[in-house]
Write a structure and sequence with these properties.
mainly alpha, MetI-like fold
Length: 300
């Protein structure tokens, strides 16, 4: 019995070493993509600016300068002021805090739901798999943006409502990814070793199976942040997301619905549009680079 246990322990130790070498290889492959590295620095710079700028800015969120309403960028107001004299430079980075915070919260919550349900479906199979996958099919049948618009129109359009709505509607995608990986991993030899050791189902799923799926989850989360920012922007631009006086990148470009604003007051909407473009583009580049690093078929 001791000999069999030693063999099992050696297999598990070998598995752990393979996981470590896998992550080291992923990081090495990612560093070779110079565009992805630059994108990472840009995203970090945007996040740090959203944290630091509102703390050091001489203007508060709702402070107005009535003598300089609708003012173009100047030394006193680097990105100008809106129609009631609020500093748009400060509001841009406070809005970035909220937009990025919503995106991170949505991706975290949807990943938690999707990982748990996908792991259960992939590990147990049978009726559990059938029920969870049919529920995910129901969610995937509905047009995503239209359902979001209906829900936020019926209920309040605050941050909590938006986070819950986007999370509940988005979990089937990550659940299917996790399920597919678990279905293949549960048939490997080290899972037989876990069964021989008498390890519980919970530890098999979340300690020995799930760590091997984390690479795919990270790729999905990176791309999901970009998609969530765009969804929040779309809803806020239509007046159905986060509403004033709370600023977000989405409702900061809302004045651009008027032609006169586009033509004469570019500082109302262009800075937030550039921030959205840079953040979404960089997140997509990072996600693509991670996908290439994780997928063995993409490695040279």
């Amino acid at each position: 019995m001791s000999t069999r246990t030693d063999i099992v322990n050696r297999r598990l130790l070998k598995k752990d070493k393979n996981v470590e070498s896998f992550w080291a290889n992923v990081f090495k492959q990612f560093k070779r993509n110079k565009l992805a590295v630059v994108s990472t620095y840009i995203v970090l710079a945007i996040v740090l600016a959203c944290i630091i700028v509102p703390m050091v800015s001489p203007y508060s969120l709702e402070q107005t300068d009535t003598a300089n309403r609708a003012q173009a960028p100047s030394r006193s107001h680097w990105l100008g002021t809106d129609n009631i004299g609020r500093d748009l430079f400060t509001r841009l980075f406070i809005g970035g805090r909220i937009s990025l915070g919503i995106a991170l919260a949505v991706v975290t919550l949807e990943c938690i739901i999707g990982i748990v349900l996908g792991t259960l479906a992939g590990y147990y199979g049978g009726i559990v798999d059938g029920i969870i996958m049919r529920i995910s099919d129901i969610f995937l049948c509905f047009p995503f943006l239209i359902i979001c618009i209906v829900i936020v129109s019926i209920f309040s359009s605050g941050p909590a409502t938006l986070i819950l709505t986007l999370s509940i509607l988005s979990w089937p995608s990550i659940a299917r990814i996790v399920r597919a990986q678990i279905l293949s991993l549960r048939e490997l030899e080290y899972m037989e070793a876990c069964e021989a050791l008498g390890i519980s189902d919970f530890k098999r799923m979340f300690r020995h199976l799930l760590p091997n799926v984390m690479a795919y989850i990270i790729v999905y989360a990176t791309l999901g942040i970009a998609a969530t920012i765009l969804t929040e922007t779309s809803l806020s631009f239509l007046g159905l997301g986060i509403r004033f006086p709370i600023p977000t990148w989405g409702n900061l470009i809302q004045p651009a619905r008027e032609l006169v604003v586009i033509q004469k007051y570019w500082w109302y909407w262009m800075p937030s549009g550039i921030a959205i473009f840079l953040t979404v583009m960089c997140c997509n580049i990072i996600g693509d680079a991670l996908r290439d690093a994780v997928d063995p078929k993409m490695k040279r």
